[in-house]
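Field reference: "sequence" (input) and "structure" (output). Example, Diguanylate cyclase domain-containing protein:
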Amino acid sequence: MDLVSEQLTDLIKESRRIAFQNPSQAYEIAYEAKLIAEKNDFETSQASALFAMGLACRSMTELERCYDHAYDSYQLYEKLENNRGMAEALNLIGVVYFYYAQYEQALEYFLNALFHLKDLEDFLVSSRVYNNLGEVYREVGNEEEAFAAFEQALQISQDNHLQMNVAVILENIGEMHFKNSNLDISYDYLQKSYDMLIELDDITSLAEVENKIGKIHFIKKEFEQARHFYDSALKRLEHTGNKFYTIEVLVNLAEMERLENESYFLDYLNQAVQHAEQIHARKKLSVIYTILTEFYEEKGQYHLALDYFKRYHIVEQAIETQVVSQKLKIIQIELNKVFTGKEVEQISKMNEQLENEIAIQKKLLVKLEKANVDLSDEVYYDELTKVASRREVTKYLQKVWNEESHIDQDIALMMLDIDYFKRYNDCYGHVQGDECLKQVAACMKSAFGNQKGILGRYGGEEFVCFTNGLEVNELKQFAESIRQAVRDLNLTYHFNGKTHPVTISVGAIHCKQSQLTPVLDMYVMADNELYRAKNNGRNRVEIRVL
């Protein structure tokens, strides 16, 4: 029995250790421990294993299962009169309510957890509960109580050398000061947290803090420092594969590029959208769609602004629907946990009603998701020119990189820009300018033919073309054929008393796929070649071969 008990202790410790780094594995280990504990009637170990399962579910944001396991753990600990175990379980249940923005219930569970800890010297759990209390008070706008709770958590952690807790709490206090625009104070707290996390080598937490420090530098217009911290955070997160926090860094990088480089701005946001769609991060999508709606409104591209506003509205509905469904499920789980025996019969009708409501909410969520996908297809298509949108091109390139990275193929990216297009607009007006764009796009599409790759509108009068499998000489011929085809349209405009033809300049990069890592590098190199083509007289092709 001692060997079994020792085995259980080791399994549960390992599960809790990797709960945030590898939650699915942590869950499997804890589940194995639970089965062994049940078989040997070790109720304390069973309760501990259930808690570890709940902790892993929290990391996977499977909140209903987290609540279920945490409540089972609490009931077992209550039966055993284990106050420390009850406090940990109550704290985890409070976290679930916090995630659902049910702050009153979360507060009740956190305070109840502290009640069970009052006669114990369990500083680790106490500091976590006080930190969670601070987060609740922060969210409801009670800053005085929030600071008091964070300071209490910090004092406990510092007195007992709980370094990881100290780093997390310092970050939370720094964020509070950031929201109050106390940037220097915020920076001091974040820097202290950062220095500690460097020592602790917590990659994800480091990236979070670097992102926040970068934001402070950005607000202060210290752009080089901001970029340094953003880039460092991005590299760390790419290494861990954490897409959730990567989205926020990409949005911040886009914000930096908004006024300086529209291409980078949109590219970063497109990457963020793809990550958010992959992990169903609806709140992140809502933020990105709001940014894109405002951006296209400012540019006067109202059809795109409307598309993104629709997407924002659908995502917000989906968020609300999902939250309602999850809340109903939590109520159902709680009823089944609290009421037993004869009392179950008394609530059977209520359970049936909840099941019906949950089913309705799930159907609505499926409907909203379908509407979002349908609208997404529209955004991938450029309404004016009838070619792929910039977003569709980005999606295509990401697919090439993800699915064909093992193939060392010839690839090329061309940036194509209509020369002096502003002069054409000034000569004929924007309505005729749109007609010119349509004709040039149709011409390029015809010249593109059945090439393996994609042709799309990058923005304004600029187009982008990606090809797979063309050798250098073939690329030169292909690029020249597109340039000549546009020249042969015989579209003209008048400037300074003379008639000028509509032409395009082309900049291209040709290489093996293995020579480049991020897709963004191709855009940068091709754009540099386009700039060279413009400087060398326009109506020409410039190609860089790696």
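The chain has a mean pLDDT of 85.
The longest helix spans residues 302-338.
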